[in-house]
Write a structure and sequence with these properties.
The protein is mainly alpha-helical. The protein has one domain. The chain has helices at residues 13-33, 35-40, 42-65, 73-98, 103-109, 116-131; strands at residues 5-6, 9-10. The protein has a two-stranded antiparallel sheet. Strand 1 (5-6) and strand 2 form a beta hairpin. Helix 4 (73-98) packs antiparallel against helix 6 (116-131). The chain is elongated. The model is unreliable at 1-8 (pLDDT under 50).
């Protein structure tokens, strides 16, 4: 019982983990650098972080799929959910323990944004499959 297989190939979980951590780290660093904006205009801060996360997800998905022969619905979903889980696992200790946010607040305010990750990875994977890339 090993890693899930997609087609004839196994998912490269080390590569998934590296890209997933990068996907979490980019918006985290931007949020840290823009933290003053949050105190002045929280809506602007939230918008900037969301845009940063979405752009990062698109760029990293395209980079991940460069040279990748596996694409399609299943692969895109697996990749996106793996990256979303990585982001949530890295977030939880920080937001629940350091910022004293409740789990319900975290889910509504932050984790819900991570639903966009599987949508992005799946959309790009399906488009690549259809175009033959």
């Amino acid at each position: 019982m090993g890693a899930p297989e997609y087609g004839r190939n196994k998912m490269n979980w080390i590569r998934v983990l590296i890209y997933g951590v990068a996907l979490w780290l980019i918006p985290f660093v931007v949020a840290f650098l823009l933290f003053e904006v949050r105190t002045v205009d929280r809506a602007l801060f939230e918008s900037l972080i969301t845009v940063t996360a979405v752009v990062s997800a698109v760029v990293l998905t395209l980079a991940f799929f460069r040279g990748e022969t596996r694409t399609g619905l299943t692969f895109g979903l697996a990749l996106g959910f793996a990256w979303a889980v990585i982001s949530i696992v890295l977030d939880l200790p920080i937001f629940l323990l350091v910022f004293q946010m409740s789990l319900a607040e975290y889910v509504v305010d932050i984790a819900l944004t991570y639903v966009s990750i599987p949508a992005i990875t799946t959309g790009i994977a399906v488009a690549r499959r259809r175009s033959g890339s």
